[in-house]
Amino acid sequence: MKLFLPLFLCLIPILPSTAASTEWQLRTGDAPLSVAELEALAGTYFRFYDDGEAFFGTEGAYAYTYAPANGGGTAWGSYRISADGGICVDFVNGAQRCDLYVRNGARLMLITAEGERYPIRN
């Protein structure tokens, strides 16, 4: 079940006011990406362990493509860097979410507002 949770990441609406006040559930060793690192995401793909893939395009474009095993398809939207260092996505279907990207040792990880952690494979 946990393997398929990234599928639903873009389907969980999170209000921007809620996300802005999120107290991220960090663990020992978590180092949030800096604003400079977040700004450098344009043109970057992140692949998750369920083979879903997040793409951060230029000028704030965003896409999450589901793995074929999970039905395929792409959720489109736009992203922005929030004041607390999270990445917030507004999807064309009206859903919104904010996540925090951290490094812990050599691993890059996505942390949801609910505290769920998803390691990034690439």
How would you characterize the overall build of this protein?
20% of the residues are buried. By secondary structure, the chain is mostly beta strands. It is globular and about 35 Å long. Strands 1, 2, 3, 4, 5, 6, 7, 8 and 9 form a 9-stranded antiparallel sheet that branches. The chain has one domain: Lipocalin (Beta Barrel). Helices cover 8% and strands 39% of the residues. It starts with 15 loop residues before the first helix and ends with a strand. Mean pLDDT is 87; it is low at 1-19. It is built from 2 helices and 9 strands; from the N terminus they run H-E-H-E-E-E-E-E-E-E-E.
Write the layout of secondary structure elements.
Layout: H1 16-20, E1 30-32, H2 35-39, E2 44-47, E3 53-56, E4 61-65, E5 74-81, E6 87-91, E7 96-104, E8 107-112, E9 117-119
Tags for this model:
single chain; 122 residues; mainly beta; Lipocalin; 8% helix; globular
DSSP helical segment count: 2
Tell me the name of the CATH class.
Answer: Mainly Beta
Number of domains: 1
Q: Tell me about the largest β-sheet.
A: 9 strands, antiparallel
Low-confidence stretches: 1-19
Shape: globular
CATH T-level topology: Lipocalin
What is the share of helical residues? under 10%
Task: Provide mean pLDDT, rounded.
Answer: 87
Our Rg estimate from Cα atoms comes to 13 Å
> Secondary-structure element sequence?
HEHEEEEEEEE
